[in-house]
Amino acid sequence: MKPKPLLIAGILTLLGIVGFPHATRWVQSLAAQKQALDQTPRLLAEVGDVSKNNNLDNLKAQQQRLQSNIQLLEAIPNLPLMGYPQAQEQLKQLRPLAEKLNQRISEESDISKNLQKAVDLDNQALEIANNPPHPEERLKNAADKWGQAIRLLEKIPAQSPNYAQAQQGLKALRPKKAQVDQWLVREKQSVRKMETVLTTAKTVANNTKDKFPLEMADLLNAATQWSRIVLLLREIPGNTTVSEDASKFLPIAQRNLQSAKSAIANLKNCKAAQAELPGICSDEVALLVEDFPVDAFTAEEDISIASADIPVVPAVTTASNISSSPVVQRYRESRLRRYPKAPPPVMTSSAGGGSVEVKGHTRSDGTFVRSHTRSSPSRSSGFGWSRSSGGG
To answer: At a CB cut-off of 8 Å and minimum separation 6, what does 136 contact?
Structure first.
C-alpha cells in the first residue's frame, strides 16, 4: 500500500478513536507544521544577512515570524511521515539566525535609546546654560551633559539607521560644548581675579586705613597694590558673574590709587619743605581709602588683627590665602545668591511640546517669581531648542 493511502487510513482510524473535534485540531496542527517546513527556505532568503538589515521595525517583524516558525518546527513529533528529520535540519539553520537577529535588535534598540538620551542631555544642558552668566558649577554641569551626549552619539556606527541623525546631533552639540567650555574658562579666570582683588584690597586697606603715622613705604606699597587691583579689574571681561561688580569696583579702585599717589606726593613735598624736621611730615599725611560696596565688606568680620601685625601684600597672592579669606567666603555666598548654581526647578513637562510648570524662585536681581506655567520650547531637528542659549 502507498504512503498516502496509509496516511488517510490512519487519519480515519484516529477520527474514530479520539473523536472528530480533537482530530480536527490535530489535523490543523499538522497542516501548520507542514506549512512551517515549506516556509523555512523563504524565511532564510528573506532574513539573509542580518548585519545588513538596519530597520528596527523590519528586524522585529522578521524576529516574530522566525520565532513562530521555530516553535512550529519544534512541535513536529518524531514519527514516521511527519517530516521530523527535515524539521531538525531546518532548526539547525534557523536557531543561529534567530540568535543573530536577537543580537542585532538589541544593538539597534540600545542605539535608539542612546540617541534619545543624547537628545535629553542636550535639552538639560540648554536649560542649565541658558541666559548666562552663570557660576562655574552650573557651567561645568552643562559642559558635562553635552560631553556625555557627544560621547553617546560618537558610538553610533555608520551602518545604523540612526547614524545620519547622530551626525547631525554632533554638528549641533560640539559647538555648544566648545562655547560653554570657553565660558567656563572665562568664568574661572574672572572669579580668580575678583577674589584676588578683594583679598588684596582688604589687606591693603587694613594696612593703611587705621595706621598712624603713615610712612613712605606704606604709601608706596598701597599705590603698587591699588595699581595692581585696577589692572585686574580692567582684565575682567563682560558676561561673567563678577563683571557687574568689576565695573562698580573699578572707579573706586582708581580713586584709591589716586589717593595713594596724592599722599606720596604730599609726603615728598612736605619732606622737601621740612628738611630739618622730616618726622613731622608723616603726622600730617592722610590716606583716604574707599571700600568696595559688597556684602563681604559691609558685614561684620571675624578679623581682629592689629594693623602692625598685617604683612605687606606680596606681588603674588597664593590660592590658599585667597580661598580661606573671610572676605572671599562672604563674597562667594553673596554672588551665589545672585547667580544660582541651578536653573529654576521644573515640576512637570510634556514630551512633545505643550507646557511646563515652573516653581517659585528668586531671580538674580532679587525679584521673586511666583509659580507659573510656561510653554515648552520647541525642538529643532531633535537637538537643541529654537530659542538661543545666550552667551557672548
So the answer is: 184, 187, 188, 191
What domains can you pick out in the chain, each with its CATH number?
3-109 (1.20.58), 186-335 (no CATH), 344-392 (no CATH)
Q: Is 64 left (phi over 0), alpha (psi -120 to 50) or beta?
A: alpha
pLDDT in tens, 307-354: 333 334 444 455 555 666 788 888 888 888 888 888 876 544 444 444
Q: What does the block give as the cell for 384?
A: 537643541
**361-380 tens-digit pLDDT:** 555 455 555 555 554 444 44
Cα gap 290→307, rounded to integer Å: 17
**Residue 180, Cβ neighbours under 10 Å: how many?**
27
Of 11, 48, 46, nearest to 31 by C-alpha is 11
The residue written with cell numbers 544642558 in the block is 125
353 neighbors 374 (Cβ within 8 angstroms): no
Q: What is the pLDDT of residues 40-85, one digit of tens each?
A: 888 888 887 766 777 788 888 888 988 998 898 888 888 887 888 9
d(CA 251, CA 263): 18
Q: Is the dihedral of CA 205, 211, 214, 218 positive or negative?
A: negative
Q: How far apart are CA 251 and CA 246, in angstroms?
A: 9
Q: Half-sphere exposure of 292 toward its Cβ, with a 13 Å CA cutoff?
A: 32
Residues constituting the chain: 392
- Per-residue burial over 239-264, b if 16 or more Cβ lie within 10 Å, else e, is bbbbbebbeebbebbbebbebbebbb
94-129 pLDDT per residue, tens: 899 889 889 888 988 999 999 999 999 999 999 999
